[in-house]
Amino acid sequence: MARTPLQFRHNGRDVALFVDGGSNLLVVLREMVGDTTPKFGCGQGGCGACTVLIDGDAHLSCLTLAEAVEGRAVETLDGIKSGPNLHPLQRAFAEGFAAQCGYCTPGMLMAAKALLDRTPQPSREQVVEAISGNICRCTGYEPIINAVLAAAASLRASA
Amino acid sequence: MPVTVKTFQAVSEAASALSSDRAARYLGGGTLVMRDLNEGDVSIATVIRATDRALQGIDAAGARIRIGAGVTFARVLAERELPFLHPAARSIGGPAVRNMGTVGGNLFAPAPFGDFTVALLALDGMVSVQGGFGVRDMPLEEFLQSRDRQAGALVVAVSCIRPASADAFRYRKIARIKPKGGSVITLAAHLPQSGGRVSGARIALGSMAPTAMRAKAAERALEGRPLDATAISAAAAAAGEGTTPTDNSLASAWYRREVVGVHLRRLLSGQES
């Protein structure tokens, strides 16, 4: 079996592995790195549960060839907290009832983080667009949208 | 399941590898090939990538715009010189897919996907293909007709004309999940006018055939005439000619044929969909 050496930065820490050729990034993160926050949903790009940031941009890890992240920075939900403290987005989701089964939550949070990193004070329309590639089956979108807006407000208050 | 990944710097080397291996697929952004690999497509034994900067360039300076095949839709949206292509780029997937999906890969997307290609087809799109003996330019329409036999060729760039005016180019995607879902119908029309009459009409449809297609009967109905209610009605009536839509979970072939004229009329007369 053809295995390829792969080095990338995972939530600020350098990772070096040998991966099976043709593996997608989601499998590598979950099964080799041990980071199970990105979720396997559809495997074809439609649900957004596997959203991660690559060099700060939202990508679907199930459609990302693992070899393509050589030398790049991958950020998952596991990496957005600050020491023992929740990221404002995490706190807003928890306090705003923006999760129910929680399966879509890692993808939603990373899509929202990609937005807030670039647009700290988004409009509601911008939030809707940012999560438009993510499907939620049970919470519904209103609490999620409100939580992202609340996180933005708390970031503004703390700035 | 074991797949060999080969990464080349030069497009010509990647094209050589691609054409010499029947079980090879070229991977751009991954939104098509990775999906196939995830589904266990055993016909893929080799994945070929190229890092050539020629795949990433955008040249918007002239009347003909050239876009590298590896340019993502997010890049297109960030390009201020290409506002007429923004509606088509925005209609593809969500933000993550737009960060990954490429202009070149979109040429290969099966119906009901491939919306950006519909826009390019209406804008006299050309495709630069790196084959065994160098780069060849071919009309996008011709490329699409022979697409399944182009698997061994590597697309380097696409080009299209800049619309004659902001109003001359129109794009619309009819989808059940707006805007990111597969399309029920995608429409694009370039209608330059000369002396108050349409001159050089091009109308393209998506999801109405295995690939994007020209609606030539509708084009003929508009050519040389003022863009008035009579001409629009004639084009709408002819919109379905030559189409071969299929049934899928989004819409039946019957439905697509019934409503394509309705949506073309709305597009041409400036009505909201």
From TrEMBL, chain A:
It holds the Pfam family Fer2_2. Residues 4-80 form the 2Fe-2S ferredoxin-type domain. PROSITE patterns: 2FE2S_FER_1, 2FE2S_FER_2. Keywords: 2Fe-2S, Iron, Iron-sulfur, Metal-binding, Oxidoreductase. InterPro entries: 2Fe-2S-bd, 2Fe-2S-bd_dom_sf, 2Fe-2S_ferredoxin-like_sf, 2Fe-2S_ferredoxin-type, 2Fe2S_fd_BS, Beta-grasp_dom_sf, Diverse_Oxidoreductases. SUPFAM superfamilies: 2Fe-2S ferredoxin-like, CO dehydrogenase ISP C-domain like. This is (2Fe-2S)-binding protein. It comes from Bradyrhizobium ontarionense.
TrEMBL record, chain B:
SUPFAM superfamilies: CO dehydrogenase flavoprotein C-terminal domain-like, FAD-binding/transporter-associated domain-like. Keywords: FAD, Flavoprotein, Oxidoreductase. InterPro entries: CO_DH_flav_C (IPR005107), CO_DH_flav_C_dom_sf (IPR036683), Diverse_Substr_Oxidored (IPR051312), FAD-bd_PCMH (IPR016166), FAD-bd_PCMH-like_sf (IPR036318), FAD-bd_PCMH_sub2 (IPR016169), Mopterin_DH_FAD-bd (IPR002346). Pfam families: CO_deh_flav_C, FAD_binding_5. Residues 1-167 form the FAD-binding PCMH-type domain. The keyword Flavoprotein applies. It comes from the Bacteria. This is FAD binding domain-containing protein. The lineage of its organism: Bacteria, Pseudomonadati, Pseudomonadota, Alphaproteobacteria, Hyphomicrobiales.
